[in-house]
Amino acid sequence: MRIQKMLAEVGVASRRTIEEMIGEGRITVNGKLVVALPCFVEPDTDTIHVDGELVATATGPKRYFLLNKPKDVVCTSNDPRQRTRAIDCIPSIGDRVYCVGRLDADSTGLILLTNDGELTQHLTHPKYGVIKTYVALIDGQLTGEKVEQFKKGVWLDGHRTAGAMIRVLKRTPKSSLLQIRLTEGRNREIRRVLARLGHKVRRLHRSAIGPLTDRGMAVSDWRELSANEVEQLRTAGGFVSRKQPTRKTTVKKTGRATVKRAERATAKTTERAGVKKTKRATAKKTGRVKKASASRPPSKRPATGRGAKPRPGAKKHTRKRGPAPKRSARRRR
Q1: What range does the domain containing 5 cover?
Q2: Which has the minimum average pLDDT: 59-73, 91-105, 254-268?
Q3: CA distances from 130 to 80, 150, 179, 182 (A)
Q4: Average model confidence (pLDDT) across the chain
Q5: If you write DSSP's letter for every residue of 156-194 in order, what string do you get?
Q6: CA distance to 69, 72, 139, 214, per residue, from 190 (Å)
Q7: In the annotation, is 104 catalytic?
Q8: Is residue 303 part of a domain?
Q9: 3-state DSSP assignment of residue 222
């Protein structure tokens, strides 16, 4: 398998970005620097490092874990300082997984661990707009003007941060409790933006990743995601749902209105027919004759036909018959 294809599948970066990283001398295979393409690797046997970090490349079933990360735990695969890693909090996984995105050691909250590189790309890339929700406790009171600055974006390292959704949950004379929702995750972005606005972050906790929340999970708790939760993450990441058809069936408004009118007309016709049948059946059983309506008097036109009675004074017309034809006598032999 080509190295750029394999690294893209495990979520390192896009193929084009990986080719640029190879040109910069940032990728090694089995301890040797990759200097040219094409380069073919075996995911199950070769050891690949990107910027000195081991990449989980073994193929196998897709696994998805959600960890409520405690403080002083790092989200890297290899830590030179030998600190506790996020993957160390999930014992006996059996498969090689990695963290989706980063959460600094001083922060707590949700972190995803998986070996699904395609989903990782969608959850971490800003263009897919997967929202991460944080709760921050800061020093001082955040004014309305600073809230607007945070929403519009702040310049960091020559780049303007993407707009954020921020809400003040609680204010005291010495502190403010904020809810912050972001679609991008730069290195320590929330802490740096608030520091630029003149506020120090005392505590930062990630409470949600897309549709997944920390409800019912204490710090250090972890669990494997259900199939339904994985499908929700895929939908949040811009994937087409596996359970829904790819083509949407739409009904035109004119067609729907026509159908409704036809249904109403059919119902009225059926109702009228039922009323007529009921009246006829009742008249036959009781022997009642339908009375003439007061608004419509009976017709004065003379009756016609074989059974009609002649009017008084009218001449009786009789049909004259001629003489009966003579029958010829049979000849006797």
Answers
A1: 1-58
A2: 254-268
A3: 31, 19, 16, 8
A4: 80
A5: ETTEEPPP-EEEEEEE-SSEEEEEEEES---TTHHHHHH
A6: 18, 18, 14, 19
A7: yes
A8: no
A9: strand
**In this structure, which amino acid lies at residue 118?**
E
Instruction: Decide which of 217, 234, 249 is a domain's last residue.
Output: 217
User: Which residue among 44, 104, 116, 139 is the active-site one?
Assistant: 104
155 CB burial (10 A radius; 0-12, 13-18, 19+): exposed
Please report the pLDDT score of residue 313 as a whole number.
Answer: 63
Quick one: average pLDDT of 304-311? 60
Other C-beta atoms lying within 10 Å of the C-beta of residue 253:
8
pLDDT tier at 296, thresholds 50, 70, 90: low
Does residue 211 fall inside a structural domain? yes
Task: Report the amino acid identity of residue 233.
Answer: L
Helix, strand, coil % over all residues of the chain, rounded to 5: 30, 20, 50
Domain count, the chain: 2
Which tokens sit at 118?
């395609």
The string of pLDDT tens digits covering residues 222-248 is 999 999 999 999 998 887 654 444 444
Residue 120 pLDDT > 50 = yes
- Final residue belonging to a domain, choices 58, 79, 104: 58
Residues in the chain: 333
d(CA 4, CA 14): 8
What 3-state DSSP class applies to 318?
Answer: coil
Any idea which of 70-79, 137-146, 201-210 has the lowest mean pLDDT?
70-79
The DSSP annotation for 251-282 comes to --HHHHHHHHHHHHHHHHHHHHHHHHHHHHHH
169 part of a folded domain: yes
Least reliable range by pLDDT among 153-157, 286-290, 319-323:
286-290
- Higher-pLDDT residue of 6, 190: 190
Q: Which residues contact 163 (CB under 8 A, 6 or more apart)?
A: 151, 152, 153
